[in-house]
Amino acid sequence: MKRLRAVTRRVAGLFHRERHDAELREELESLAALQLDDQLAAGMDPSEARRRVIARTGSVTAVQEAVREQRGFGWLESAWRDGRMGLRLLRRNPLFAITAILSLALGIGANAAIFSIIDHLLLRALPVRHADRLYMLDGGSWTYPIWEQVQLRGREFDGAGAWANEEMTARVGASSRREQGLFVSGGFFELLGVAPVLGRTIVADDDRRGGGANGPVAVISDAYWERAFGRDPNVLGRTVVVERVPFTIVGVTPRPFFGPEVGRSFSVAIPFGTEPLLRGSGSALDERRNWWMNILIRRRATQDEAQVQAAVAAMTPAVREATRTPDPDYLSEPLRVVTAEQGRSPLRGQYRDALFVLMAASVIVLLVTSANVANLLLARATARRGEMSVRLAIGGSRWRLVRQLLAESLVLSVLGVAAGLLVAVFTARVIVGQLSTSTSPVMLDVALDWRLVLFATGVACVVTPLFAILPALKATRVEPGAAMKEQARTVAGDGGHALGQWLVLVQIAMSLALVVLAGLLVATFTRLASRPLGLESRRVVVAEVRMLPDAVPPEERVALLERLRTIVGQVPGVATTTLTTKTPASGSGWNSAIVDVDGTDVGGETRQRMVWVSGVSDSFFATYAIAVRAGRDLSAADTSDAPPVMVVNEAFVRRFLGGGPAVGRRVRQGLPDRPDTWSASREIVGVVADTVYRRDLRRDFEPTVFLPLGQLEGAPRESITIAARSQAANAATLVAAVAQAVDAADTRITARVAAHQVYVHNALTQERLIATVAGLFGGLALVLAVVGLYGVTAYAVSRRRAEIGVRLALGATPGRVVRLVLQRVALLVGAGIVGGLVLSLWAGRAVRILLHGLEPSDPLILVGAAAVLLVTGGLAGLVPAWRAARTDPAAALRP
To answer: Cβ distance 327 to 356 under 8 Å?
Structure first.
């Protein structure tokens, strides 16, 4: 109890301090006055009486300090006073404060920004109940029949659910736009533990084919509620029209929940059972070979992962048998699960390595920043040598001065963290914006939260000792009398200057490593961006047309597509048009295997026989300016009544024909061990140049075959691309006109129109982002290193002012003085470059996976980076050298 009362008194002592101090001072002064009166009454001399009273009672201030120590937490009050003093001193020197805080903000902000993205993509669990109990069926996508079988056996677990991403046209009132949608199973949100903020979620009764008892229902996200309905509290019961089908809104999900896939948000969620209403005859619910959905399992609290794996393995034979396909390996393929605690995200695999490289780069930026701030503090400490000397001379302890200087550094760190968090949020949002493309939007809510604040604070706790301790110790290592005298005229024995030089050397070395990294990544991006695509993209506009489900009967689709093509061709400025099932470089693909050529098996495993396939109409190669190397182009005469033909690219000829003649050869497609899948023999009528097919521009050109649209089996698909070639050099001017023409052509279609160059631009999103961020980090580190080099050089010149004056008085020319200063700069920069090259070669192995056509030790990049450091370092030293050469000898030597 005594300890508790003592602590209570100390805590209470922290409050109303001014009142307590005033009362104590009044009491002490009253006591001293009474004692003085007693001494005077005894006949003592007044001056001697006062001396004895002071000697007996002590200084009022000293007594106050002792009482404060007993009354409150002395160390806390002292720290508070040190912090306030540090803040006042920073306000007196705003240039120093702004420079140091800005440096810390950039270093801490860069680290916090990359951490924020890594945290959202790689570290965070889904914002759902007990996310650690969630598992997904491993192996990609699954069919709806497989989901039905897993659902029947869901009692083995705490539940099971499924979802599928789908881009949908959603209309509210007269406003219609493409939205990210979700098909979900009944009870999916309950499985995740996501409670609605309004209404209810989708239940099992809603997930019936054609809709449940309440008809087609939908749950919308908080973001869509705000965007489309203005957060109307009466949104329940209102209608959102999805692909011409009205859905009744029954619930709104909470803001933190973005969906089961990290990096992708949803606007509208609807039951799987309503899928036939949207897709009509193209429904995938009964298709055993349509892989389009994800299956989720929640384990019981009493189960572990091994038990879940065992349960899934036990159900595999029954699930496979009930959903049998013609694939001979289908029945033997086991079902496995992987943890879904962090949800699903294709972005993880795509950006994991790049993010870790950028995180390492941001750490180097932070170290360069710390060295820069340490140099600033060293320079400030030198300017305050006289102050430190006086404070030591009047009785201050060295530890007390060190503590004061550390408090000033801590204030800098706190302000740097605050500014750094603003930099982090802004930078992270810019990076996420760069991840998004027009066809693949990315949603990561990189807002300020406690995790980001905690990380930034932790970074500050690590770097503050790095830049604060040594300058504080150096500043207080001064003799009280020596520093108060006139300072020496040379820098001999100046340890602070030597430390500053070492810090600059480290800055130069790490900056060079970042410049090399940026050079490698920028060169990779430049190589890929300038890579020949085999087609002319800038002059092509593409309209991805999608027919509304069952809106256009199969027998009318050919006529509709030809009419749309004609309408696009009549747009002023259009030279040629064509139709294709796959837009080059769009990311979508269609592949097939080659069985034989002229009746001879091509050999190899199935994956070695694979080729990319695209169905195209006449003028495809002319529209994209793809060179025809041999034979002819496909024509309008290549219909279903004409002999089956194909056009192949040069990569096909090299792989399957040994580079020999191709025109006239006959090819069959299908699975080698499945004769029932073999196509009719097609004649090769033409060979075209290699062109890009999918989005990955790092790959070599792959074998591709082009089939006439008129000879594809069945009616034309409900989605197809119309490509138009512009008469002008740039097709961007045609986008609006083509979009307007297509939109007005038929109400049964929707279309997305863009310049084809957009697809090529999107294909390089990762490389562009990495090169840009690395370039910014390298440039920032370079600027900080140059600033540090300039500061050290200017300081050295100021310390050698008398020496330079003597040299000039004895006949040295200004040019000689400039060379003298620049020699020291060159020595420092040269040593930093050597260290930086060693660091670059050591660290280059980590970025090899991100490079294309380059080695980490590329001599051109290394030499170029070293040249950049040498030139900028020389420029940083030139200004102090020029000032030194203009020194007035008389003024420099004047006492």
So the answer is: no
Say how far apart CA 880 and CA 468 lie, in whole Å: 27
Distance in angstroms between the alpha carbons of the first and the last residue of the chain: 68
| pLDDT tens column, 241-260 | 998 899 999 999 998 899 99
Please say whether the beta carbons of 196 and 251 come within 8 A: yes
Query: Could you give the CA distance from residue 696 to residue 824 in angstroms, rounded to a whole number?
Result: 49
- The enclosing H or E element of 710 equals none
Q: Which candidate, 89, 588, 760, 711, places its Cα nearest to that of 377?
A: 89
Q: How many CB atoms lie within 10 A of CB 197?
A: 12
Does residue 652 sit in helix, strand or coil? Answer: helix
pLDDT, tens only, 83-112: 677 677 778 878 778 888 888 999 999 999
How is residue 752 written in tokens? 């997305």
Q: Where are the beta strands (DSSP E) in 425-571?
A: 540-547
Can you tell me the mean pLDDT for 539-545? 94
Burial group, residue 306, by CB count within 10 angstroms (0-12, 13-18, 19+): exposed
Q: Residue 229: name the closest of 198, 260, 202, 184 by CA.
A: 198
The Cα-based distances of 43 to 32, 38, 47, 405, 679 in angstroms read 17, 9, 12, 51, 130
Report the distance separating Cα 794 and Cα 105, nearest Å.
Answer: 25
Continuous segment of H or E residues that includes residue 426: helix 398-435
pLDDT of residue 733 exceeding 80, the answer is yes
**Nearest partner of 799 among 372, 373, 383, 377, judged by Cα:** 383
pLDDT digits (tens, 9 = 90+) for 36-85: 677 677 777 777 777 766 666 655 555 655 555 555 555 556 666 666 77
Q: Rounded to two decimals, what is the model's pTM?
A: 0.82
- Distance from the Cα of residue 77 to its chain's centroid: 42
The sign one gets for the Cα dihedral 781, 782, 788, 789 is positive
State how far the alpha carbon of 473 is from the alpha carbons of 88, 103, 377, 727, 791, in Å.
21, 22, 11, 72, 20
| 57 and 92 Cβ atoms separated by less than 8 Å | no
Residue 248 structure tokens = 């009744």
Task: Give the sign of the dihedral formed by CA 318, CA 323, CA 324, CA 325.
Answer: negative
What average pLDDT does this structure show over 185-200? 95
Tell me the angle at which helices 814-843 and 801-809 cross, rounded to the nearest 10 degrees: 140
Q: Quick one: the chain helix, strand, coil %, rounded to 5? A: 55, 15, 30
Distance (Å, whole) CA 444 – CA 436: 10
Rounded to whole angstroms, how far apart are CA atoms 35 and 42? Answer: 11
- CA dist., res. 420 & res. 434, Å (int): 21
Spatial distance between the Cα atoms of 164 and 148, rounded to a whole number of angstroms: 14
Compute the Cα dihedral for 773, 774, 776, 777 and give only its sign: positive
Per-residue confidence (pLDDT) for residue 664, from 0 to 100? 94
| pLDDT tens string 327-372 | 777 878 889 999 999 988 888 888 888 999 999 999 999 988 988 8
Rounded distance, CA 132 to CA 20, Å? 55
Beta bridge partners, 118, equal none
Which secondary structure element, helix H or strand E, spans residue 81, and what is its range? Answer: helix 74-92
Kindly report, residue by residue over 851-884, the tens digit of the pLDDT. Answer: 988 899 999 999 999 999 999 888 888 888 888 7
Burial 666-701 (b: 16+ CB within 10 A, else e): bbbbbbbeeeeeeeebbebbbbbbbbbbbbebeeeb
Q: Per the structure block, which two tokens stand in for 499?
A: 């430390």
CA–CA separation, 560 and 552 (whole Å): 8
Which DSSP letter does residue 587 get? S
Q: Which residue has the higher pLDDT, 815 or 265?
A: 265
298 DSSP β-pair partners:
134, 159
* Cα torsion through 765, 770, 776, 779, rounded to 10: -130
pLDDT score of 570: 95
Q: Look up residue 436 and give its two tokens.
A: 């998004």
